[in-house]
Write a structure and sequence with these properties.
The protein has 252 residues and is α/β, with parallel strands linked by helices. It has a single domain, classed as 3-Layer(aba) Sandwich (Rossmann fold), CATH 3.40.50. The chain is 34% helix and 15% strand. β6, α10 and β7 form a beta-alpha-beta unit. α2 crosses α3. The two termini are 31 Å apart. The relative contact order is 0.23. It catalyses: L-tyrosyl-[protein] + ATP = O-phospho-L-tyrosyl-[protein] + ADP + H(+). Keywords: ATP-binding, Kinase, Nucleotide-binding, Receptor, Transferase, Tyrosine-protein kinase. This is non-specific protein-tyrosine kinase. One of its GO terms (cellular component) is plasma membrane.
């Protein structure tokens, strides 16, 4: 699964798309033109420990630490909102590129938030050996940000995400470019098995917890499912103690 020249496969996606940045700004999300808004400052704080964890104390890269999955216990806690904002915030870093992966393959919501159409993506690569990453990764109008869509739905999504092909794809994504950070928008942990399978292969996990909604039981079970992960970060989302723009979360 090499990041090779574009294929002529009929399912291959267009290689460039335009994110609706005006709509993101209206949703109170991070944009390069948004300045020092409260939500931008929040995600500057959130991303800093994630970036620090990319390297060990001796300066050597930590294996797969640049693979970051954003998940939640249940739907509606704001994981897609957080994944997109995190990716956009990291894309502002110097000498860094970001690949945002829609791994919520059963119910992909990133296209609606970003104003994109349907494109081939992650599932298509796993289902069709003729496709390469270059066929399905979308360049965007945010210079340092690319997107890997979810692609077609499949009943064997869990098995595909747990397959050797997926492990090889993750290694390819993690290792091909030294400056690449990959942010995955995951399915909810307690509704699907795909999220736990994905999290087990990630270097870092961001678990989104909805203020005054996520129960202790749900949080404990979600943490149990990702307990094998060494680096777990909690994001307390939609809290009333923050400004309205900072606590707003897209309902996924």
């Amino acid at each position: 699964m090499k990041d090779a020249a574009p294929s002529e496969h009929p399912g291959a996606a267009p290689r460039a798309v335009a994110i609706d940045l005006r709509r993101l700004a209206e949703l109170g999300m991070v944009t390069h033109e948004g300045g020092r808004s409260p939500v931008a400052e929040d995600f500057r704080i959130i991303k800093r420990p994630l970036l620090r964890n990319l390297r060990a104390e001796d300066g050597s890269p930590r294996p797969h630490a640049n693979l970051i999955i954003v998940c939640s216990a249940l739907p509606g806690e704001g994981k897609t909102y957080c994944a997109i904002n995190l990716a956009l915030s990291i894309a502002m870093e110097r000498d860094t590129t970001v690949l945002l992966v829609d791994a919520d393959v059963a119910r992909p919501s990133m296209p609606g938030v970003l104003g994109l159409g349907e494109h081939a993506g992650l599932m298509d690569i796993l289902l069709d050996q003729r496709l390469t990453l270059s066929d399905v990764i979308l360049k965007t109008n945010v210079p340092a940000l690319s997107i890997l869509p979810a692609g077609r739905s499949n009943r064997q999504a869990t098995e595909l995400l747990a397959s050797r092909d997926m492990s090889e794809l993750l290694s390819e994504i993690a290792n091909r470019y030294a400056d690449r950070i990959v942010v995955f928008d995951s399915p909810p942990l307690l509704l699907t098995t795909e999220a736990g399978v994905l999290a087990a292969q990630m270097g870092q996990v961001v678990l989104v917890v909805e203020a005054e909604s996520t129960t202790q039981a749900a949080l404990r079970e979600a943490l149990r499912q990702i307990e094998s992960c060494k680096h777990i970060h909690l994001v307390y989302n939609k809290t009333r103690a923050l400004p309205a723009s900072a606590r707003h979360g897209y309902d996924r």
